[in-house]
Every structure is written in C-alpha cells, then in structure tokens.
Amino acid sequence: MKLDTISEISVGKYNKWCERRPLVCNNKIVISKANKHLTRKELTSTEKGTLFLHDLVNCQGLEFVAFSSARFKKPVVLPGRVVLVPCFLSEIEGKSWKDPLVRLTNRMMEHARFIYDGWVPITDWNINGVREAIRKVDQILTIFSIQERIWFTWEPKYVPSQIYPSSHKIEDHHIQEIQNLHQFIDSWIDDDSKAFYRSVAWLSQSLRLPQAAARFLFCILAIESLATYIEKESAIDSAFKPLRSSQLAGSKRKEQREKCIKNVLDLLLTTDPTKAINSAYLGCVHGIKKMLEDHLGRVFANDHEPLKLLFENKIEGKTLYDLRNAIAHGGIDALSDLQRQRLSNRIWDIERIARRYLVKVLEEIWGKSPFRQKMIKTMMMPFQIVSHEGMYKGPIHMAETYYTQIS
C-alpha cells in the first residue's frame, strides 16, 4: 500500500510548516459565518476553533502545536495521517549561536521539551468528522507512553475561547498579607501546618495543569486532604480543634472507631456477614462522602451554596462529587474532547469551593479574613483577526511563538 507523502497530506494547511501566522480576513460576511461556531454550546473549544479556522481561512484540517519529551529529528507521518514536523534543528553542533533557532533548540534540549507543528487533514466537516480527527490526535500521541516515559501535550494553534489568559497585579499590601498569614500558620504545631500546606499545594498544582480531569481531581483533593486530617488525624491541641466533629484526640478517635467495629462484627458477622460489613462501615467508619458533607456543613455553617454545588446541583445528570467519583474510578474517557470540555466547564466551581474552604478554615480559627485587599486582574485576548499581514508585528516561527512554554 502506497503511503501518502507529507506534501500530499498537508494540502489545505493555512500556515507553512512551523509557522503561526496571524488570522487574516477582511471579509465581514466570512468573519460573521465563522463567528457563529463560537456560540454553539454543543461544541468544545477545540471543535469551535477547528470549524472557525476552516470557515475563516479555508483551512482543510486541524493545525496544532505539540510539546513532547520525544525528539524526532525529521518530519514524521504517524498512523491516522497525523503529521509532526520538528520546529527545532536536528543538530546544533558547529552552528552559530547568533542564530535564534540554535539557542531555542538548545533550550528545548535542556528541558527535554520539544515543539512540533502538528497537522491532520479533515475531509468530513460535519461535527462527527471533526471530533474523529481530534480524538485521532489524542489516541496516536498517547500510545507512545506505553513503551517509555514519553509524554505529549497538544493544543490547536488557534482556540477561540471565552476563558482568556489573565494575570494579577501584586502590590506591597498583598505581600504583607501573605507575610502575616505565613506567620500565623507558622505558629501552629508542625502537623497542622504541614496538613494545611499539603492541601494548598493540591490547589496550587491544579492551576498549572493542562488536563481537565487532573485539575478537577486536584481541587477535590485540596478539600478532602485537609478535611480528612482535621476529622481523623488532628491532635488534641490542634489549631483545627474547633472545626472537628469529635473533640477527642486522633488516637482516641481511632480507638473509639475500632471498638465500634468490633462490637458490630461480634454481633452480626456469624449470622449475616454482608450486613455486618455494611453496618460496621456505615455506623463506625463512615465513607469519605458522609464525612465530607458533615465537615463542610460545620465549616460553612449558614453558607449552603458550596454543599449544594458539591452534592445536590446536577448538570447533565452529575453533581461535582459524582464527577469526582467518575474520575477517581476511571469512568471518564480521557481521550474524549467532549468529556474533557464538560469537565473544564465545571472546574471553576470546584476550584472556587476549594479556595473558599481554605479561606473559611483560616477565618474560623484566626477570627478574621486573611485577605482583605482586592487584586487587579488583567485579561489578554489569545488572538485577533487582522485585515492584512502587515498589521501583525509578532513572531511567526513556532519556536519563538511558544518559547515561553518551554520550561
């Protein structure tokens, strides 16, 4: 069977290889038609971007940028007609360091994070055809992880989104609040401060992750980690004692729990083993969900919104906690762009609850809010449409365009 060449497969690309040009169009009718995809709620961001680019500039496939620890020294055609073209030099030995691409290639080598121009043609432009192309990229790039510790991440070159990158302006009074908070936490016993920082770390790491499922789960862990410590492990002199359901020390609570289990098993194990296990678990141990509901009910007191968002309000048949269980037990299809998008749409809710929980815990044991000074947020548009090439003054080569993502 004759394999298609890269030149044959790449017919219909908007950009030359390893370039990311501005979006150029001065036809208002074409722009209006392309913009209609952005309001289609049934589409993911990647699907919107792919259809948008197709209608705007007649791109006949999915152009994407890929980052990987794998180093291909030449362009490759992978299964499914997925093409990867290295946006770096195959060798830099003997090359002039005055060449920006030599320096960028060296930086990629230092960080084992290489940039590729990706492409997969699309012949069927209905939504199923577009979704099949997107899933194909995910499937093919995922396979590499089976053989070695090779990772890939990718994103479309152009993604119209309602969620734009943002930054926050930090002033001296914000730094002073951080110093005051650190001093307060530092006054706790060592186990308490470690438990709190461990929980904050889950939230912090969630902000840096690109994968929706991981971000969602890390936000949940930020809540469950501290709640579990407070309810099951904290000492009698813990700073978190006022938030605990039982005022017994951790060792005493464990002793009480084990005594309860023994009594239930002695009573039921011989006659009804299934009932014995269920009764011991529900009556003495309690599941994480029950513990969390009780704990958050006390922490948030009259503020019912967090508990409703977590355990009651369903979107597309699932509460936030239902999604947590689906992720934790492998019930989410990590290669489904649609499921990833649905998770992304719920991340802000769980992130907001995690942050409110941590702040509320601090307020309850400190007697005041740790953050009283508002921060100024700045948002940047990810791209814009220009009427001619000369209006754009930024970088074109993808190694320069995505330079900041090499870290």
Describe the protein in words:
With 407 residues, the chain is an alpha+beta fold. The chain folds into two domains: 184 residues, no CATH class; 211 residues, no CATH class. The protein contains 15 helices and nine strands. The strands form three sheets. A five-stranded antiparallel β-sheet has the order 3-4-5-2-6. The mean pLDDT is 84.
Q: Main traits of this protein?
A:
two-stranded parallel sheet; alpha+beta; elongated; 15 helices; 407 residues
Give me a quick take on this structure.
Helix content is 51%, strand content 10%.
Please describe the topology of this protein.
Blueprint: H1 6-9, E1 23-24, H2 28-35, H3 45-57, E2 61-68, E3 76-78, E4 82-86, H4 100-111, E5 114-121, H5 127-147, E6 152-156, E7 166-169, H6 172-186, H7 190-206, H8 212-233, H9 250-268, H10 273-285, H11 288-300, H12 305-312, H13 320-328, H14 337-366, E8 376-379, E9 385-386, H15 398-401
Parallel strand pairs: 1-9
Antiparallel strand pairs: 2-5, 2-6, 3-4, 4-5, 7-8
Helix pairs in contact: 2-3, 3-5, 7-8, 7-14, 8-11, 8-14, 9-10
Sketch the topology as an H/E string, one letter per element: HEHHEEEHEHEEHHHHHHHHHEEH
Number of helices: 15
What would the average pLDDT be, to the nearest integer?
A: 84
Gap from first CA to last CA: 41 Å
